[in-house]
Amino acid sequence: MSQLLFDTGEWTFDTLKRTYDAIEDVAVREMGLDPYPNQVELISSEQMLDAYSSIGMPVFYHHWSFGKRFARDEAMYRKGYSGLAYEIVINSNPCISYIMEENTMTMQALVMAHAAFGHNHFFKNNYLFKEQTDASGILDYLNFAKSYIARCEERHGITAVERILDTAHALMDQGVNRYGRRARPSLSQEQARAEAREAHARENFSDLWRTLPPSRKGAAKPAKRLEPRRGAPSLPEENLLYFLEKFSPNLRDWERELLRIVRNISQYFFPQRQTKVMNEGCATYVHYKIMNRLFDLGKISEGAMLEFLTSHTAVVFQPDFDDPRYGGLNPYALGFEMMCDIERAAMAPTDEDRIYLPEIAGCGDPMGALKEAWANYRDDSFIAQYLSPHLIRKMKLFKLENHAAEPRYKVAAIHDEFGYRDVRRALASQYDPGFRDPNIQVTEADLAGDRRLVLTHKMHNEVPLAEQEAKAVLAYVGDLWGFDVELRGLNDLGVERYRHEFAPAPPMESGPLY
Amino acid sequence: MMNIIDRRLNPSGKSLPNRQRFIRLAKATIREAVVRSIKDRALGDVGSKEVVDIPVKRIAEPRLRHSAEGGDRDQVLPGNKEFVRGDTLPKPKSGRGEKGSQASPDGEGEDSFRFTISAEEYLDVLFEELELPDLAKAQLKDTSVVRYRRAGHSPTGSPSNLNLLRTMRKSLARRISLRRPKSDDFARLEAEIAELEAMSERTPEEDEKLGALWLEREKKEARSRRIAYIDPVDLRFNRFEATPQPSAQAVMFCLMDVSGSMTEDMKDLAKRFFLLLHLFLTRQYEHVDIVFIRHTSEAKEVDEETFFRSAETGGTVVSTALAEMRRIVDERYPVDDWNIYAAQASDGDNYSSDSQTCIELLTTQILPICQYFAYVEVYDRRQAEIFLSSLNVSELWKDYQSVAVDRPNFAMKRVFSKADVFPVFHQLFAKARNAAA
């Protein structure tokens, strides 16, 4: 009787189950990974496209931009320009991985190792995910968000909801708290809170008030209700969505709730944006180890192993900078190489490693070192800590300086003794959200006066914003804020480099406010 | 521990609401594209998918992000082959180097967004602002087709429509309010009586009690006989109301002059018009029949192929086609059951002594039974220049103009080129048509 888990490309539920058990044995018992319980869901390619369009989440609210994305992805897929991902994995507890029915059995094995153990372990153990996301509450929250937004659409019309969501999406990247966060109710409590708020409004509703004759100053009254007393904002505030939600003078309660929903979802995805290299590196390393181990144990055939290696190499392929296929550093490639490099340094260190990676060089426990790294770093700090000269040489990394004033690029550092630290620092800052995302804050908002809202972009190295887009976003903000808004760009010396202003059109004759 | 769930049977198309929202947003652009497409579509192709280019500006998703140019920036690249520290490289001419580009695909570079709408969506947009003329609808109302719809409950009706649940509820309410003795009461009474009767010796009090119980039983029995378990007043029946159903079938007559003077060009225009009308009617009615009648000096019903393809020679007597149409209606399409539409295409030629017959046939025989009669006069490219001025009109056009007066179910238009077909069609059926007229 052969020990093979499967011997054809076709999968069945039986082989899936058997293979999963074998993978779990390697991952948990031998490698000591610590994942959430797994839930593997089989979907068709059609459903994969669906999931794509709602940023990979199983339930999501409706918005035209997802329809646009769907139309584009579908066209690309139908014409064969792009394939679909083999899997989608969700940071939830239990951890849900979607695998496609079109995959061969080998691919299913690869995908389960990659998503259900690699990503899953990372989600459960990395400090950013632990601190900033609530894996057990996210699906409930998305359900709440979907039905809440659907109800708003019913009650207030799709256009009114889209007005808020368009703005919220435009500010999504600026809708996160970057550093830590104060204690707040878990996501699953949000629903209860929103419901309680509504229930309170309902209970205190009395039809009697409607029958009162309108006072002579009737027009002034509703305006008053629009502006409940809110605490004075503490400026500067970098979370623009938060600021609008709390202090925008012109929003109704449900509109604030919509901003809040988008903000919470943005915050949920924020750790993923900061750990792309590590997350993919971790998952790729894990699937590579597991598949090789299964092969060594005689559980998968040589044919399947070759198929696996083909797709694995395609995933970790890094074209050179002058290759027409080059499209930036491939996070899979960089991540995988770094994980392998850590393993190498732990097992067979050189003298150089003892200087550059003293903590792990020769420690003899690569999994221990890796798990430590996966738990306590994000991309920029991980690169700053672990990118070794060996890997810099292997990938032949070099640093290019591009000064606006100079007519030519300058090679500032290459893979030599003088350049290692420089390259490492530059690459790390390339992944630092503090450098990567524009630093934009609310700096002035005279709530008691003319209510002019001032956003300040603290430019780093004089890098401006994409101007047309910035103006469009400013118009969105002005529309929600309801008063003049202004975006200033200050360079490192505090000198103003540009200024965009937007004055919203005076409000139309407003209809009933509630 | 693993849970494996097969989701393949879940409905796909979860993204449909997103798509609808997207289409709503891009509606103006899609409309333009659809109207443009109808001009240069191949025949028979109308009603299939359409690829639409949407200027990205209308559906942009702007974000605050760094520009691809300007400022000082460092980047780390892989695959150094020959550079050493201090080397310099020329910057690419085109400002936007492929290297430093951080702009996403959604960024400023993209000019338009291309996507495909389905045939259904295409037709929705195409016929969005069109409707059948009011007059046609008024006639729809008094058609004889009747459909039964549930309409609450009534106290009378046929036994087969008895609503048991309602009836029993009524009966229960009545029995409670009239205090009809329940079977439980009887059972209790019987038990007590049986107990007393079974005694071999009874005290006088017990005798008296027995007597009272007998009396009570008799009273109760009488009462329950008087108050029926189910009374006719309890009965409730499901009520059905007959609602007149607009006749869901239509017949469309295509009349065309195929004499030698009709060139292929003109037939092509006519065909486009017929095609649109057919599509439009198919969306309004469950069932649409088409009858093709071509005529020279005499008219004949033919199949579609012959209608558009084969050429005939001979004179032109329009009235023959009208007479033929009337004959077919009488023969096969009872006016009560069918909505009748007619579209006539011609180059405007007619045998001069035929005008009077024509007008008479139309006004007395055809128009009274038609929901709508549309006349389009087609011109080929050469004639178009001559006839473009409204002063130069054909014989038939003049005759028909006199018919058109005061007859809202008759409309006439002239079509000079492919590009005109849809606008003309649109004018004929636009929602505002009747308001404006």
How many DSSP H or I helices of chain B?
15
CATH class of the largest domain in chain B: Alpha Beta
**Shape of chain B from CA axes?**
flat
User: What structural class results from the helix and strand content of chain B?
Assistant: alpha/beta
CATH topology of the largest domain in chain B: the name is Rossmann fold
* H and E order of chain B: EHHEEEEHHEHHHEEHEEHHEHEHHEHH
How would you sum up the major sheet of chain A? 4 strands, mixed
Would you kindly provide a written description of the structure presented here, covering whatever features stand out?
The complex is a heterodimer of chains A (514) and B (437). Chain A is of the alpha/beta class. Chain A contains 21 helices and 9 strands. In chain A, the strands form 3 sheets. Chain A has a 4-stranded mixed β-sheet. In chain A, strands 1-3-2 form a 3-stranded mixed β-sheet. Chain A has a two-stranded antiparallel ribbon with strand order 4-5. In chain A, helix 1 crosses helix 4, helix 4 (105-125) packs across helix 12 (276-296) and helix 12 packs across helix 14 (331-347). The N and C termini of chain A lie far apart (73 Å). In chain B, helix 10 (318-332) packs parallel to helix 11 (355-366) and helix 11 (355-366) runs parallel beside helix 13. Residues 95-110 and 432-437 of chain B have low confidence and may be disordered. Chain B has 3 domains: 20-58 and 118-128, no CATH class; 159-239, no CATH class; 249-436, 3-Layer(aba) Sandwich (Rossmann fold), CATH 3.40.50. Chain B starts with a strand and ends with a helix. Chain B contains 15 helices and 13 strands. Chain B has a 6-stranded mixed β-sheet with strand order 10-9-8-11-12-13, sandwiched between helices. A two-stranded antiparallel ribbon of chain B has the order 2-5. Chain B has a two-stranded antiparallel ribbon with strand order 6-7. Chain B is α/β, with parallel strands linked by helices. Chain B is flat. Chains A and B meet through helix 1, strand 1, helix 2, helix 3 and helix 7 of A and strand 1, helix 1, strand 3, strand 4 and strand 5 of B.
